[in-house]
Amino acid sequence: MKLDKVMDKLQHRKPSILGYKDFFKSAVLLPFIDINGETHILFEIRSLKLRRQPGDICFPGGRIDTDDPTPRAAAIRETTEELGILERDIADVVPLDYIVSDFGRIVYPFVGKISASSSFALNKEEVEDVFTVPLDFFLNTEPEKHYVNMQITPEPDFPYASIIGGEDYDWQVHRIEEIFYYYEGKVIWGLTAKILTHFLELLKSE
To answer: Keywords, A to Z (predicted)?
Structure first.
């Protein structure tokens, strides 16, 4: 192929994330709700019937469907389905930074307001219960931080002879930071805590 053809193919394309089409894509909403004049954040407790992470604490959200025009629309749809509220009960939905994980997942987080007059009808197949925490609690509480080391283990048929160092190749250990918030016997950690911490850092930076 001629060089001018190579450049012509590349110069007009819009860069994306390598392998984007193969990523699992989801959207979540960090929901505010006014309780007696005080700003609270609403959390879900995942149904104990679920196969993955039953009983964990999370924000409303889930997989982005092909029918969802945008990640924002997916976050709103998932919130209405899980909490049993109407779309008009959700307002001022704005994006946070999205997350690209090493495990082939992209998460699009948003913040938004849920009307204090909303009448919840929880989808019990997905949501065991909900609770709220005052925003001021998080603004005045430092989370605990712990670390998980992820060790790389090649498969038995890995072609060591093809790489410099062979079986003695210096694989880098991947270190993951895990954040923990504790509130009245409930533990908020994992991706939910990461999104929450990112949001709090944005508030404090202003």
So the answer is: Hydrolase, Magnesium, Manganese, Metal-binding
SS (H, E, C) 164-200: CCHHHCCCCCEEEEEEEEEECCEEECHHHHHHHHHHH
State the number of CA atoms in the 13 A half-sphere of 94 facing the CB: 5
CA distance 192 to 58: 6
Low-confidence ranges of the chain (pLDDT < 70): 102, 206
8 Å CB contact between 138 and 182: no
pTM of the model: 0.90
DSSP 3-state of 93: strand
Rounded-to-integer distance, Cα 14 and Cα 12, Å: 7
User: Which of 188, 83, 206, 205 is CA-nearest to residue 138?
Assistant: 188
CA atoms of 146 and 143, how far apart (whole Å):
10
Q: Which residues contact 56 (CB under 8 A, 6 or more apart)?
A: 45, 46, 190, 192
Q: Please check whether residue 114 is in contact with residue 76, taking contact to mean a CB–CB distance below 8 angstroms.
A: no
All residues at 6 or more sequence positions from 84 whose CB lies less than 8 Å from its CB, including other chains = 119, 120, 121, 122, 123
